[in-house]
Design a protein that fits this description.
By secondary structure, this protein is an alpha/beta fold. 48% of the residues lie in helices and 10% in strands. The chain has twelve helices and ten strands. The strands form two sheets. The chain has an eight-stranded parallel beta sheet with strand order 9-8-7-6-5-4-3-10. Strands 1-2 form a two-stranded antiparallel sheet. Strand 1 and strand 2 form a beta hairpin. The longest helix is centred in the last third of the chain and has 33 residues. The chain is elongated, with a radius of gyration of 25 Å. The chain starts with 15 loop residues before the first strand and ends with a helix.
Length: 353
Amino acid sequence: MERRALRNGSPTDTIVEVGDTRFGHDPFPTIAGPRAVESDEQIMEVATAVADAGAAVLRGGVYESTASPYEFPGLGRPGLELLRDAGAEVGLPTVTKALEPKDVEMVASHVDMIHVDPRSMQNFELLRVIGGTGKPVLLERGGSATVDEWLWAAEYVLAEDNDQVVLCEGGIRTFEKSTRATLDLSSIPVLKEISHLPVIVAPSAAAGSRTRIQPLSLAAQGVGSDGLMVEVHPDPMAARTTASHQITFEMFTDLMDALGVNRVRINIDMIDRDLVRLLARRHLMVMRVGRIKAERGMPVHIPEREVELLDIVREEAERHGLDPAEIEGVFDVILEQSREMQRRERARSWSRA
């Protein structure tokens, strides 16, 4: 059987949808938020700041895999509820980790995407259970894993008929001591060649210092990454988890500006998508009306109806401060397309008859 994570000769890339965000399609979507959800006030403050700066997905840890039993383990279920509510408040989808199979169902019921921690990358039972939820999965590379081992881990999710997998490069263990891990940016073009899955970069933990996050993020964008994940905290030095690589709100805003990502442009993109969806709905209704016209022997072009419609459009344009003549020109194009679609449908019907 062919491995599902590999291209197998296909040039088509997988698009992973997390709420309204599409990894592998949208221009460099960024996941941002604190390493750990600490309180209602903290996560709401972060959610508001990163949303305003242009983040596409809100992250926040509620279960932490720590090196020491004395470190903050996360808030658990209460943290899930805080993360869910904060995302809903600012209009962002959410992502968090599930560390054990028994927690997966509860995590899946609260967030839009499930993050597989690097330490869990080869916990195959966990991967199967997460894959079975049907939720999008953020699969972060293990610190000692090869690219091939990483893709084999993805197979366990894909084998559950869940193709919504985003790969995440967060750094691997090497002999280098100047950083916490070595961010393997060379893996991005390699994965683009051999896999159809989108891949993002998480530079925070690997960098070992918040001052290195921006240059590494720009490098990730430069090598073709499909997005980014960074850790953001209102006061990093007071964080209950690792402080050294969580960045401030100001640093996050500067990072998004440097990447060329901003909230206004994202909002425009969302509106443009909505316009296309509305045009598609209009197309379906136009074809339905066209069939009724054909059944009743009515012509495709009914000038009186179009005059009535254009009067409504001009009036609506004036109400919203738009130039009526310009908006009428847009609708002239839409109406001409509608007539042409109805004519083609009639021609096909006659040819079948």
